[in-house]
Specification:
Order of helices and strands: EEHEEHHEHHHEHEHEHEHEHHEHHEEEE
Number of strands: 15
Structural class: alpha/beta
CATH superfamily of the largest domain: Thiolase/Chalcone synthase
Distance between the termini: 16 Å
Strand content: 15-25%
Mean pLDDT: 96
Largest sheet: 11 strands, mixed
Length: 414
């Protein structure tokens, strides 16, 4: 089977527009969370989120095409354009025929769903826009990216809640290593900082209500955590066969070596006790990568800052990694502490962060972890980034419905 490498990264996040700025901010534990500005949230119990600040869609998309898309597609085209520029690739006709676009999305264009529901109610069906459906449906991020970049390989959307974009990367990995294509744009996007998005998660009592201290609201594993903070953004990775990357002299961030995916089959929103399904996903990824648990240096955890979920993930990691984890040899952190939870886009952002950590030799911290919950015995890299030469790292992504993904990335060695 083909070896699979990451040769380009594009990030558009609450911590910055561009990979370099996002990575700098994440390492510095600078929060991208603040008061909501994308809609009037003054009457909502939760009034904070991780918004992409200063984003101008016209810098990446012709003005006349903006109305064809929801904000989630705007963000994805921006991240994908940045990714291709970062990869420095000149696509041949054959490349374009086979390069796929796998972009995971959890919810899609909620802002247009809300607006058009009001139009239908107040003005009737004759006033609905012909662009309503394309601005809402989740697969149009992949479709719009493919059209913008003229990529004619397989294109589809994984929609598996907060594991959506991790699934997309895993599936791109599978396509390439089996020789079905040499190139994939894989990633995810989400833009649900809307009344429906924030209101819906608030109704589930899932969101933090620390409105007066937004930058301190996302605090995975901290005793004072009270829910996750919603975020928006996009990440795209150029995933490439090693043979193709070598042929064009590409720079290589990291190698993808393992992919595990499972389901809890347990509850709508709660993880299975002791993260049983997450355990199986992590073990599957390790087996796929042909690695012992002791080979993993760092785990970028799902780590959402919810009272129940954080502890079940910690227990799952303890079960899988045993003494390697409890003796603090394994470092674990959650970068959701500074950008919030990007839902369908989270897995791709965090996989990109893992690739950057491998290349840079630095582990991003868990911000706001001031008083660690004693039920979590892991070294969660509180407050300050650390230096470490890493060989293998893992990225965890879990979602409502009990869906679980673990990805293993490795330092590229010839």
């Amino acid at each position: 089977m083909e070896r699979v490498v990451i040769t380009g990264i594009g990030l558009v996040t609450p911590n910055g527009i561009g990979t370099a700025e996002t990575w700098r901010s994440v390492l510095a534990a600078e929060s991208g969370i603040g008061p909501i500005t994308l809609f009037d949230a003054s009457s909502f119990p939760t009034r904070i989120a991780g918004e992409v600040k200063g984003f101008v869609a016209e810098q990446f998309i012709p003005r006349k095409k903006l109305r064809e898309m929801g904000r989630f597609s705007h963000l994805s085209i921006a991240a994908s354009t940045l990714c291709m520029n970062d990869a420095g690739i000149e696509l041949t006709d054959e490349d374009r025929e086979t390069c796929g676009t796998f972009i995971g999305v959890g919810l899609g264009g909620l802002e247009h769903l809300y607006q058009h529901a009001i139009t239908l109610h107040e003005k009737g069906p004759q006033k609905l826009s012909p662009y309503f459906v394309p601005t809402v449906i989740a697969n149009l991020a992949a479709g719009q990216v493919a059209m913008a970049l003229n990529l004619r390989g397989p294109s589809y959307c994984n929609t598996s809640a907060c594991a959506s974009s991790a699934h997309s990367i895993g599936e791109a990995f599978e396509w390439i290593r089996r020789g079905r294509t040499h190139l994939m744009l894989a990633g995810g996007t989400e833009a649900t900082i809307t009344g429906l998005g924030i209101g819906g998660f608030t109704a589930m009592f899932a969101l933090s209500r620390r409105n007066e201290e937004p930058q301190r609201a996302s605090r995975p594993w901290d005793r004072a955590r009270d829910g996750f903070v919603a975020g928006e953004g996009a990440a795209t990775l150029l995933v490439e066969s090693l043979s193709h990357a070598r042929q064009r002299g590409a720079k290589i961030y990291a190698e993808i070596t393992g992919y595990g995916a499972t389901c809890d089959a347990y509850h709508l929103t709660k993880p299975a006790p002791e993260g049983e399904g997450a355990q199986r996903a992590m073990r599957m990824a390790l087996k796929d990568a042909k690695l012992a648990p002791t080979a993993i240096d760092y785990v970028n955890a799902h780590g959402t800052s919810t009272p129940h979920g954080d502890i079940e993930e910690a227990r799952a990691i303890e079960k899988v990694f045993g003494d390697h984890a409890t003796s603090k040899k394994l470092w674990v952190s959650s970068t959701k502490s500074v950008m919030g939870h990007l839902l369908g886009g989270a897995g791709a952002v965090e996989a990109a962060i893992c690739a950057l950590a491998l290349q840079d030799g630095r582990v991003p911290p868990t911000a706001n972890l001031e008083d660690q919950d004693p039920e979590c015995t892991l070294d969660c890299v509180p407050l300050v980034a650390r230096e470490r030469k890493m060989t293998h790292v893992m990225s965890n992504s879990f979602g409502f419905g009990g869906t679980n993904v673990a990805l293993v990335l490795s330092r590229f060695e010839g």
